[in-house]
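hi! just following up on the protien thing from before. the input was this:
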Amino acid sequence: MTTQNIKMTFHSAHTEWHAALDAAGRFDTGDHVAGLGRWWLDRSGRRVALSAVAAGLLGIEAHPSLAACLERVEPEDRAAVRVVFDRIMAGDDGVDCEFRVRLDGHGLRWLRLQQIDTPDADTVACGILLDITPARNAAARERFNFTLTQYLVGTDSIDDAIVKILRLVCEELGWEWGAFWAFEENADEDGLLHCRYSWQAPRQALAPFRQASARIHVTTAEGLVGAVWAAGEARWLEDVSGTPELLRTDEARACGLQSAYFFPVTFVASDGRLVRPGVLEFFSAQLRQPDAQLPGLAKSISAMIAQAFERMTQQERIRVRAQTDEMTGLANRAHFYDQIDRLCRDVPPPSRQSFGVLFVDLDQFKPINDAFGHEAGNVVLTEFARRLRALAPIGWSIGRLGGDEFALLSTPGAGPDELEAVAEAVLDAARRPFVYREHRLSVSASIGISTYPEHGGCTRELLHAADAAMYTSKRNGRNLASRFSADGEADEAGHRMALLTDLHYAIRRDEFFLEYQPICVSTGTEIEAVEALIRWRRPGGEIVSPGVFIPMAEQSRLIVDIGRWVMRQVCRDLARMRAAGIDGVRVHVNMAAPELIDAGLPDRLVALTAAAGVNPRLICLELTEGVVMKHADRSIAIMHELRRRGFGIGLDDFGMGYSSLSMLKNLPIDSLKIDRLFMSGVPFDRDDCAIVRSILDLGRHMKLKVIAEGIETDAQLGYLRQFGCPLVQGWLPGRPMPLGRLFDRLTQLQAA
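and the predicted 3d structure came back as:
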């Protein structure tokens, strides 16, 4: 290139750059109204010119250096923006990028830089700069709310959920510190608020502020946190340095924190009470304005946390109800058995550390019930339970197994002397008179003692041994405690062995039969479905309760054979219904654990229904929460396959303390039953009513049919109708009946 050409090129570039400077300096009303910034970049001289709008968006002067353009860009985005500048300098066209800047008074903003093709782009590149924060914030809000919902639905721990929420807010919205202030454990609203959970950005050194927050405990009348909790209103601090009620002003200033936002978490509980779990606070190292994104999200954050608190409170109530004997407040049978199971698992070989089980039966309790009524009997049971709680050593568990039977479980390491001393204290507690009105009632106790691992390695064996020892005490005159001895259980074992032997032949002798209990719509008499219930009539005509023979069958392979017999009989009965012109009634069939974890179950059931000409959709397989959760890794896959083949799946005894909501949402079920335990107090017990309403709401939201079982009174039925329970089962809507009587009732309903 000649000197003349070089001069001409330089002159052209100089002219174009001056034109760019003139354009940048002109005030454009349209650009200001639209918030449209413009930029020019001199490729030869690495010079930048910005319109007034663009300079304001970047928070710098109108003629900055390239380095100055990066000053307010977020550190994580600077490298990407630098690459964009390098591409423009190298002559690239059509460059487009989005990045974040942080400005005092405006917080974090999103900008979009776009290059525009022009005739003189070889020497001076130009483009526009847009503030895309509103669009980004809208997308972030949607993403934030979705993630927040996932956190709260997918967790069964409020601790875990709150920490995740604090981190989510700080990372997504650009805050350096987040904390949740709540009352100290087990304190009421007259207690002290303290910083229970916190999260901080790794890039910010906040140790002094974190330590100061951990030290502070305030009443609801102290400090900014207390004021926000008491007033139930949010507070914005544009500059924390002039706020002494913060109580951590010096530490906040030392750590570079400038703005803060506080808002309460409140909700109205199902019983109408206003519940205020605590206060959320967030701090920023930037001077922010109240129009930052967090205040707009505060209500939804507070509402979702409040819902999580209420849901988990209800779950805890359900868990406690499911594990507690209502009358005495002791552990119920299922929970006490579970405690022994857990101890057997937790004390494995090689330690084999001993612990003991005391089985307690009250003597002469029935005559009290007969003479004075159940109210007197309840007084004895509740007072005896109170005495057991008072005498039990720390760490021991106490349960009521049913009727007048109680049990105590020692801590690991309890020796024979400690077990016998506690047994003697129990005997003394039973001997002391019980006062009912003007009467002094007297009972005694017979106690059996078994020890792990000497008398058994599992719950069934230990309770069997303790039960046998208790009967030894009764045979020896009552008011005694006896240790288990294998010689003393021969008679009891003989009776059980005879029953088990008969059970083996029951199918072959055709001694089983089915009865069907209606499942009705709550608003009328229409029968939506029936539940198949097995019965056993021994050769002598004795009807053996399922509560006796089913546990025996579950201890052997017999439960599988019985389950297969039930399913074959149900298919035959459904075929008879269809032949009689009765079609569309669904039959619920209970499934045991060994059946559910059999991978061949779907094929076998399909073959059975096909042979009988029965549609699989007319059969609903009922599974208990315990069965599903205990074998979740295998059972859920089989459940999915059964649903694919057309069978219904129902969750029985819902709320008995096994499944979490995060697990429940993954189960392929179409119905669930509210356990009769929770119906017993409806409509008079506030906790039972709250639990039932929660389960009904859960069923509606998850599009599940909800069946309330154990309905025995008009008051219960009326309550369920009021709150929209679709289906009911119990003695009021219909007792279990043979197939013939079911035919008659269905025929009458069809005729009506």
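Residues 329-484 form a domain with the Alpha-Beta Plaits fold (CATH 3.30.70.270).
Residues 1-10 have pLDDT under 50 and may be disordered.
cheers
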